[in-house]
Amino acid sequence: MMQEQPVLSIKNLSKQYGEGCAHCEAADAQLEKNFCPHCKTVYACRNISFDVYRGEILGIVGESGSGKSTFMKSLYFDEEVTTGEGYLRDFEDGQTNIFTQSDQMKRYIRNTILGMVYQNPMLGLKMDFSSMSNIAEKQIAAGNRHVRNMEARSLSLLEHVNIPLHRSKEAPKNFSGGMQQRVQIAKALSNNPPILLLDEVTTGLDLSVQADVLDLIKSIQREFNISMIVVSHDLAVIRMLADRTIVMLNGEIIEHGLTDQVLEDPQHEYTQQLVYSLL
Amino acid sequence: MLTIEQLQKSFTIHHLQKTFPALQNISLHVAEGGFLGIVGKSGSGKSTILKSIYRTYEPQEGRILFESKAFGTIDLLQATPRQIVYLRKHEIGYVSQFLNVMPRTTALELVTQSLLDVGVAQEEAISRAEQALRHFDLDEKLWNSYPNNFSGGEKLRLNIACAVVKEPRLLLLDEPTASLDQASKLKVRESIEKLKAQGTTLIGIFHDLEFMEGLCDDVFTMTKYVEKEVLA
């Protein structure tokens, strides 16, 4: 195993809401958490840098408001980054910054290289369309036009995520939370993306359904050797899934390491608090 | 195979504003195919050494030089997390006293998965997993049930099976016989002897000195009992 190219490399990604002012842009700025008391600018993500390798699951933990979801949305182009660079191995061989691309190119990247599963299925699915057309939609977006192929692909994905096929023409609004999440996962996988982004996918699901979804994620990762970024505030989920873990606080990465190391030998004060709060 | 030089590890607990020393200037060496036993009182830092090698703990100073197949001689403390993940999958195994149960994963699946993770093909993984479970005398009726309600001994044997089935080059054993009855202990011993015969390097912590008798090539005693005094 020699030098290997990361599938995703993020360098100094920052996202702020607001213009910033002399006070908060100073090197020794005193912010209230990630908020400037003078100009009300919110620094949601500050200088986030990391690499993700093939077949690896990277966990991101942190309290509400620490910038986890903003980061994921920025990566999926739902939000525009303020500064920073991102490189994908599967986009121009990792030589071009994805965040400076045209909207058209960003759509191409998100439809072919990235898959996203949101915490809220309403964001990821069209609730009134059938499950099958939800999946087909993503395939059409990636340039597929062959109806039979799309149908076959959608059905095989739904089967894979354990949705009974006789319900494939039903709209996800009639499904339970766990099923909606599974349809979202099927949709995210529809174009065989090398990277899957999972934002709090098990939050709000009851324990047995949670276990179902986690099983599914784990089996997908093993089967497709896909890389994943998993955001969760649930340390048990992270412990089960992630090889490496990043801890975020107030928009910054404060700790980064092997998952068991972060959980058993936490260095930062906040991480220690987090781990000691574990039930 | 493994050389530890001047290892130092302390734990800083922020809310107490205290630092607790755990290891001070530990140096030891294990030759390829050797078995080093670590003995010492509880709290003397035996497990901390193993966890430092496995990089669950992050020591502050020293070196842990491991002769890896993939990376050559590598200082585990300087290795990237990516390299450690690789080493854990392919070269270094760890058996603790506790089983990390995965939700709704049967005993057989658990052992099979640890093989699938290293890239063994499904069919071979299953047959090797079955072999390992049989070897550790885990009742066949239990293979397809969830380990959550296994007895302590059954869990432990399952745990050892998971680690051993991957045939790591270096195996770290953190009191793997702590809650076993005599018969199970013998099974574990038998399997350790087998691993040793295959050339696996082992480092183990055992409370049971009798158990170690004749197994270990060398014994490292945590003589310097570190006072649990606060440093700062």
UniProtKB/TrEMBL annotation, chain B:
It comes from the Bacteria. Pfam families: ABC_tran. GO terms for molecular function: ATP binding; ATP hydrolysis activity; lyase activity; transmembrane transporter activity. Keywords: ATP-binding, Lyase, Nucleotide-binding, Transport. PROSITE patterns: ABC_TRANSPORTER_2. The keyword Nucleotide-binding applies. The keyword Transport applies. Signal peptide: none annotated. GO terms for cellular component: plasma membrane. This is Phosphonate C-P lyase system protein PhnL. InterPro entries: AAA+_ATPase, ABC_transporter-like_ATP-bd, ABC_transpr_CbiO/EcfA_su, ABC_transpr_LolD-like, CP_lyase_PhnL, P-loop_NTPase. Residues 2-230 form the ABC transporter domain.
